[in-house]
């Protein structure tokens, strides 16, 4: 935690005062700016660059009860070599799985440089005692996870118990050791943009390496507006502290067109320093397939169709 915020987190009342003292969000203005940035078009050369950049930013994800070692191995192989017909295709940033599949994913990606991320802290609901949540994290880290995606206690947050949320993030960060921590807010359950801004600042102050929109398991996940708001938060946090935090929109981003819109948001809001997989990720599964098809079309002039790529 940056020393500048030691007084802010001294007590529940000081934390509450800080969070409720943040500027209110102009919802109409936020959505209008997000929509305006989403209308920008890019030329062919820039589009090719954007597609490769987006591929390199994907956390290729499978988080289903029916996940098997075979499915995870196949996903790991795809992350390392997304298009077997074109070895120039970038690798994805990471593979994201449940803790019990971390060792399998780690073996699948080998020394390729693809990270293994694991959801934890009783994902996706986050409804568990703190010792259970920390056990979840330690299990994943011991199995070799490079990154941990935790969920906040939305019940505590919505009840105004901000200190509990802060302290749990701090405890999880400590349990991560050298693994990077992504903090998921589940923005679709936070109800208001003001709440998303407050959650962003709690996460950043508590030591998150990334702030993340969603689990992908609810009706409303990543949107241009909520991602824009979080990008503003990390931009302002770095301006105040010198500490850079990453952003990860997750859930519902399926097309190349959508991915490009989000990259424009990043460039125009936080700036080019965030246009790197170390600082920006897409939590997705089907997005990669569309990016590969569009990449092939740019290279060959033909649209090969969805049967050309593997179905996840």
From TrEMBL:
One Gene Ontology biological process: carbohydrate catabolic process
Annotated transmembrane regions: none
MF (Gene Ontology): deoxyribose-phosphate aldolase activity
Reactions that this protein is recorded to catalyse: 2-deoxy-D-ribose 5-phosphate = D-glyceraldehyde 3-phosphate + acetaldehyde
Broadest EC class assigned to this enzyme: lyase
Alphabetical UniProt keywords: Lyase, Schiff base
Pathway involvement of the protein, from the record: Carbohydrate degradation; 2-deoxy-D-ribose 1-phosphate degradation; D-glyceraldehyde 3-phosphate and acetaldehyde from 2-deoxy-alpha-D-ribose 1-phosphate: step 2/2
GO cellular component: cytoplasm
Highest taxon in the source lineage: Bacteria
Protein family according to the UniProt entry: Belongs to the DeoC/FbaB aldolase family. DeoC type 2 subfamily.
Name of the featured protein: Deoxyribose-phosphate aldolase
Organism in which the protein naturally occurs: Streptomyces alfalfae
